[in-house]
Each structure stands twice: as structure tokens, then as C-alpha cells.
């Protein structure tokens, strides 16, 4: 599965690292962190996916984003529950997602109107632990998303990047 992701700044990765000891009771804990903007699908020719995405992103400006807290999905539409994540507020990323969803079919129950910008920390495990984590206060982390990356989910690495404005 290919996707468009927004890289997160070091301050967000540092926050995730500080929270890491409190994630020990979860089935899967993320070691690396990014922010999924839109799944593009699978393709034999990734360059065609990139061309379509580039056309869609043409003229897109850099956007502001902020991690505002720790939250969790108690019953995600796919995968094990709960999912603990860093909540991200960004009307700009939501707009980019909507533009890409007009071109690349949204995944039902995850994208389109159901899209929630976030950085996953862990999944599976005890919901009470997720609830405790969500009660923690954190200082908001604000940054400018000035590039997006095309991400290869199978190999878990970026294929290429596009600077914003695109």
C-alpha cells in the first residue's frame, strides 16, 4: 500500500519517545512515527500514482499542524483496539486529504469524512491504559508541514518527497 504522509518534526518524535515507557502494555508499539495523509493504494507502477498525486497537489501551500494531546480510538474500524495516538489539528492537512480523496478512492470508515489526522503510538492492549494516557496533559507542538512524502507501506520507507508549495 502506497500513501502520502507528512513527516513529523523531531519534537513530535521526542514526545513519542517520552511516552514510550507508558506504552509497554500494548501489543504493538510504533518505533517510527509519521502522519498518514491519504492512502493511494497498490500499484505495479508507483510512478503513475506519484504523477496523479503530484497533479492533485499542484499549487498546494505549506500548512500548519499541531499535536494537541494524547487520544485513543476505543474501537477502530480495522486492526486491534485500542489505538493510542497523538491528536493532530490541521485544517490544511484535512484539505489536502480531501483533495487526494477526490482522486484516490477513500478507504471506507477510515478516510473521507472519517479522516482523523493523528500519529499512532500503539495499538492493542488494555483500554484503561489508553484512557490513562489520554488524560495526560502535554504542551502543544506546532510546526509547518513544508513537504509530503510518498510512502511504501510494504517496505515501510519513503519513496520520494514533494515540497510545499507543490
Q: State the low-pLDDT regions, or none.
A: none
CATH fold assignment: Cyclic Phosphodiesterase, Chain: A
- Counting helices, strands and paired strands, the structural category is alpha+beta
Q: Strand share of the residues?
A: 25-35%
Tell me the overall shape: globular
Estimate the helix proportion, in percent: 25-40%
In angstroms, what separates the terminal alpha carbons? 23 Å
How many E-type strands?
A: 9
CATH class: Alpha Beta
Number of domains: 1
Describe the protein in words.
- The protein has a single domain (2-163), classed as Cyclic Phosphodiesterase, Chain: A (Alpha-Beta Complex).
- It is 26% helix and 35% strand.
- By secondary structure, it is an alpha+beta fold.
- The chain has a 5-stranded antiparallel sheet. A 4-stranded antiparallel sheet has the order 3-1-8-9, covered by helices on one side.
- Keywords: Ligase.
